[in-house]
Design goal:
- By secondary structure, this protein is an all-alpha fold.
- The protein is built from eleven helices and no strands.
- The chain has helices at about 1-30, 40-45, 50-55, 60-85, 90-110, 110-130, 135-140, 145-170, 170-190, 195-200, 205-220.
- The radius of gyration is 20 Å and the shape is globular.
- It starts with a helix and ends with a helix.
């Protein structure tokens, strides 16, 4: 037993170090965007030497890729767990919880969200100039970070549609439009900060304010046409 415990220790220590580096990258990227994720800055943020960072992440590209995938993965896991824990609740309550948590995660790390949007816009601009919509979709699906984001959103859309059915029925076009409205309601407050508060009166600086905003958005989404 003693030898087994000793054998596990280096692996556990290595995993803990890797997680610490990734957490530092998430925090730094969340504050300042992907441009801030130089290996030196992340190593300093994590409190490890540069050689140790490179042992776990071979390049800056690898670090950026895993940071974004971790961010999207954590967001997806949080939303999925919230939905699962409220499985007996009314669809409106589940939707409010899911989207309040999602908005909180997004507002906590705006730098990563803006970086994802910037990459998406860059791909769309390049593809639209070169060849149009189909290559644009292929480029997004083939992108190592955006493809993962697209897959995660696809999973969430199916869950959201299932929660909308009880109020809206089986009209696929209507379900798709209302799902899209819910998802855009997450990005608009971030993209137009501080305008939601100054112009529209939605104060999203607290969780209570976020929840009140999402409750209204969900009520609109569930309203029969």
């Amino acid at each position: 037993p003693g030898h087994g415990a000793l054998a596990m220790a280096p692996n556990e220590a290595g995993a803990a170090t890797r997680e610490r580096i990734l957490a530092a990258a998430l925090d730094l990227g969340g504050r300042e965007g992907l441009e801030a994720l130089t290996t030196r800055r992340v190593a300093a943020e994590a409190g490890v030497n540069l050689g140790l960072l490179h042992y776990h992440f071979a390049s800056k590209d690898a670090l950026v890729r895993e940071t974004l995938q971790s961010f999207v993965g954590q967001l997806l896991a949080t939303i999925t767990e919230a939905g699962d824990s409220l499985v007996e609740a009314p669809p409106s309550a589940i939707l409010v919880e899911i989207f309040t948590l999602a908005l909180g995660k997004i507002m906590d790390r705006p730098g990563l969200v803006f970086s994802l949007i910037s990459q998406l816009v860059g791909i769309m601009a390049k593809a639209s100039v070169e060849a149009g919509a189909e290559p644009m979709e292929e480029a997004i699906r083939g992108h190592e970070c955006l493809g993962f984001l697209l897959e995660a959103q696809g999973i969430l859309v199916q869950r959201i549609k299932a929660l909308l059915v009880s109020s809206l029925g089986q009209d696929e076009s209507l379900l798709a439009r209302r799902s899209l409205q819910l998802f855009t309601s997450l990005l608009h407050p971030l993209l137009f900060t501080p305008f939601p508060r100054i112009i529209y009166g939605f104060d999203l600086r607290s969780r209570e304010g976020m929840r009140a905003y999402i409750e209204g958005v969900v009520a609109d989404a569930l309203r029969a046409p």
